[in-house]
Amino acid sequence: MSTTTGRTTGRPPGPVRRELRPTAKVLPEHARAHNRSLVLGHLFHAGPSSRADIARSTGLTRVTVSDLVADLLADGLVGDLGVRTEGRVGKPATLVGLRSADHHVVVLDLTDDETVRGAVMTLEGQVVARDHVPTAGATGAAAVALVEELGRRLVAAATAPVLGVGIASPGVVDDAGRVLEAPNRGWYDVPLASRLTAVLGAPVHVANDADTRALGEYTFGGADANAMVVTVGQGVGAGMLVDGALVRGRGHAAGEIGHVTVIDADTPGEAPLPCACGRAGCLETVLSAPALRRRTSGASAQDADEALAAAGRTLGRTLAPVVSALNLAEVLLSGPVDLLDGPLRAAATTTLRERTIPAVGHDLGVRMAALDEDAALAGACVLVLSGRLGIT
User: Fold this and answer.
1) What is the pLDDT of residues 235-248, one digit of tens each?
2) Taking the CB of the first residue and of the last residue of the chain, which one, N or C, has fewer CB atoms within 10 A?
3) Strand ranges, E, within the chain
């Protein structure tokens, strides 16, 4: 029995009604922040433009654009580049452009099991300085201390105002930059973003490393708007883009394919190996870089190729349902080229096409990532651009 407006009915409870449109009023400051992001986004992607160019591209009025550009000029984010030189009818237009080299972003990649790498970058992802610290097997609080140390050094190395700090971390990371769990680092419920913001004196943005690689490949590496970037290192993870938007999932764990069980006690000829997550037979025990090196070390060239192909077939079987469900255009592999770009990639491609309908798999691309080892750093830069300037 359900009660509605004080009356008892004999009908069972109906489905919960969900609003499909926002009902809260959009405040003026929210609209202004959104429009500001549109202007910055245009200048980031299109380069120097006139105010009229920006108005046409964004759909904003020229008055609104002029007002926003004036604010951005005052904030030092945009510079006046002078009059456009090419001949056009009418008054020559004055160009403005993003002052990308006049602000720096500090970025850190925490994914390697031996080294924490970092860099100082411009707003366009150009590396200004690099630094690193060896991990020496540090986990837990000791690993956090290493990140703090490198972060301090990189902030000190910046020669322009630091817009923010971006961090690519292994594990499950929530929207607040809290690492919910990263078994390989011994991190559980670690408030990494808030802790480092206090230590470094700059806004810190943290996301899963596979997600940041996807952002980096999309923004700087030419990845399709519907793509998956599979990261193979000490562990295995994936970042996914659908229509250019990062897929995070209900518990911020979208893309955690490394801990999908692919080998169990009934798998012919292979026993499941223990995984860092506490289970056995996860994809990570087959496809991680250490696992692939164990399978190929000391083997003949033919046996090594077959071991890599077998891992590629396992990857293809694991990804086929995801690729089909999201109708992805391409899969990018990020990791050791000597392990991934050969029999493994070829076998994964064949398996994916065999296990998906032609509409999905026929022209599906499986290729190596374009940004190589700097993909996570570039993606961490995008985290800051998005979080601080609204640039996507």
Assistant:
1) 899 999 999 888 98
2) N
3) 2-4, 7-9, 49-50, 78-83, 94-98, 104-109, 115-122, 127-134, 162-169, 172-173, 179-182, 187-190, 204-208, 227-232, 236-242, 245-246, 330-334, 365-368
